[in-house]
User: Which sequence fits this backbone?
């Protein structure tokens, strides 16, 4: 691990002005905020991340979960994953989020990892994690060995010729389906970004994973008011039953009245280069009867643009079945 | 059996003391620039807040006080030091194990403010003011924590390397939302890998404590 300066900023403003001295935005930057450390310290040990300064944000007043005036929920960036998952309102009104968090990582990691940090967790692509290998995400312009190499676990949606890395998050898949917003504080003030616009497609700049600019700090995630009577489900398929990243997962928030689907919010994990909301599949459900044929049709629509890599063609059918089964289970709940 | 036990007819050096003694002579012979704190002849854990004197000087080291098992340790550490390395190498509490060092095995599990965390993915500097508990703070061979006793009774290990992490995890699990059945225990224990495969007995030990509690 490279050496670094350890700083505990006294307040949020100091944290932001210090981080703004960074040459690039958060991920891979020379000044890094540290929350739980579960991604960052791991990657620092591998010399994938080599920050010169670490800003410990754990003592900043960003660890509250509060009701918003419209009955939504405002979640501080340093709230731990487990505290969010077990929060009574999340369990009651946003249970897809509880399910997604509890199917991710292990109890120890969930006790450490922060909500803001989860939005910035980095891909598990083996080439990204190995500094002996080229990687466009880690070292722009060096190439992508995954496209011709080991890519079984990598993405089939949102890929580019430069990068096929999967976003590894479970929590983010639920946040996408819940239409969360991300509150960001930066040197130019505060702004709110829709969850679907927070992460970027790799395109020709896979090293740039989010809209964050140098100095930008995620301060909160806000959930809109819950849709009453909606059915929530997160289904995760993986190589082992627990403590493993998704090969395919689906977050489903479904409203059904008189046997017809009135509202659907769907997102897929394990298959996209970012948390993958599927509006095509949502549109394919609304107004239809809640039955297997409808669900399969939606799944076909969701994966229509999928482009498999050499080792992961199976993910297309797996993701379809994952979404179909999640819809069927949610509808029956 | 305690080494101070007058009934003992043979000296009973612990494995740790044996390794420390041989390790320190090897280190001396190599004239290593890094001298572990525990190379001193006295056990640093016995004297309250006396560890500053025994922490070797390292350029760029930062002073910090860590509260481990109810005792304050005033230390000087390199900012890169993980909580795990600090506990093992600086404070010389070697019950906490280093397995993968990347958050994939759970061997390094300790409690911070009563919650289980992986000490390998934490910087020690992040923990001033926190209450850290390691396996040494849980019980002693003479007075074991009920979970330690259950692991012994149920034979919840083979080689023992993952055991302190398993027990720290299991003790924390007692205070977490966990369904009554074995499947729920297995799910919440999935972050602790046992390569010997003692899982069935580990689950049995945990369920024994939960049912007795």
Assistant:
């Amino acid at each position: 691990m490279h050496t670094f300066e350890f700083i505990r900023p006294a307040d949020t403003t100091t944290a932001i002005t210090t981080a703004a001295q960074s040459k690039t935005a958060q991920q891979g930057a020379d000044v890094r905020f540290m929350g739980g450390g579960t991604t960052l310290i791991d990657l620092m040990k591998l010399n994938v991340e080599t920050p010169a300064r670490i800003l410990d944000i754990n003592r900043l007043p960003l660890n509250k979960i509060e009701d918003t005036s419209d009955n939504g929920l405002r979640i501080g960036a340093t709230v731990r994953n487990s505290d969010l998952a077990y929060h009574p309102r999340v369990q009651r009104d946003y249970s897809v989020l509880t399910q997604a968090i509890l199917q991710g990582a292990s109890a120890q990691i969930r006790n450490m990892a922060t909500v803001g940090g989860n939005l910035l967790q980095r891909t598990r692509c083996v080439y990204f994690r190995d500094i002996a290998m080229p990687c466009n995400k880690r070292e722009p312009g060096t190439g992508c060995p995954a496209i011709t190499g080991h890519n079984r676990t990598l993405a089939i949606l949102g890929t580019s010729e430069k990068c096929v890395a999967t976003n590894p998050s479970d929590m983010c898949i639920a946040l996408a389906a819940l239409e969360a917003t991300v509150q960001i504080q930066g040197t130019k003030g505060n702004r709110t970004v829709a969850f679907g616009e927070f992460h970027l497609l790799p395109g020709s700049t896979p090293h740039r994973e989010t809209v964050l600019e140098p100095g930008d700090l995620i301060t909160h995630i806000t959930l809109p008011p819950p849709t009453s009577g909606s059915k929530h489900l997160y289904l995760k398929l993986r190589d082992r039953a627990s403590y493993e990243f998704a090969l395919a997962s689906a977050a489903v928030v479904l409203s059904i009245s008189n046997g017809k689907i009135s509202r659907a919010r769907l997102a897929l994990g394990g298959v996209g280069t970012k948390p993958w909301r599927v509006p095509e599949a949502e549109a394919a459900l609304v107004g239809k009867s809640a039955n297997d044929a409808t669900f399969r049709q939606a799944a076909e629509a969701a994966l229509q643009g999928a482009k498999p890599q050499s080792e992961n063609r199976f993910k297309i059918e797996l993701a379809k079945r994952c979404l179909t089964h999640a819809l069927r289970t949610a509808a029956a709940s | 059996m305690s080494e101070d036990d007058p009934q003992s007819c043979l000296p009973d050096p612990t494995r740790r003391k044996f390794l420390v003694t041989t390790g320190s002579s090897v280190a001396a012979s190599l004239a290593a620039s890094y001298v572990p704190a525990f190379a001193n002849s006295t056990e640093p854990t016995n004297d309250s807040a006396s560890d500053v004197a025994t922490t070797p000087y390292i350029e760029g080291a930062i002073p910090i006080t860590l509260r481990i098992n109810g005792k304050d340790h005033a230390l000087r550490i390199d900012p890169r030091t993980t909580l795990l390395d600090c506990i093992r190498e600086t404070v010389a509490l070697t019950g906490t194990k280093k397995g993968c060092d990347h958050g994939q095995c759970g061997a390094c599990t300790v409690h911070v403010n009563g919650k289980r965390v992986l000490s390998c993915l934490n910087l020690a500097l992040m923990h001033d003011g926190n209450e850290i508990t390691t396996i040494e703070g849980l019980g002693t061979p003479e007075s074991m924590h009920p979970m330690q006793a259950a692991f012994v009774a149920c034979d919840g290990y083979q080689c023992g390397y993952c055991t302190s992490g398993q027990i720290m995890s299991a003790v924390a699990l007692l205070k977490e939302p966990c369904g009554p059945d074995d499947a729920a225990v297995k799910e919440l224990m999935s972050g602790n890998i046992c390569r010997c495969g003692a899982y069935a007995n580990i689950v049995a030990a945990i369920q024994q404590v939960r049912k007795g509690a």
Notes: The mean pLDDT of chain B is 83. Residues 15-30 of chain B form the longest helix (16 residues). Chain B touches chain A at residues 60, 62, 78-80, 82, 101-103, 106, 109, 115-118, 120-123, 125-126, 169, 172-173, 176-177, 186-192 (CB under 8 Å). Chain B has seven helices and five strands.
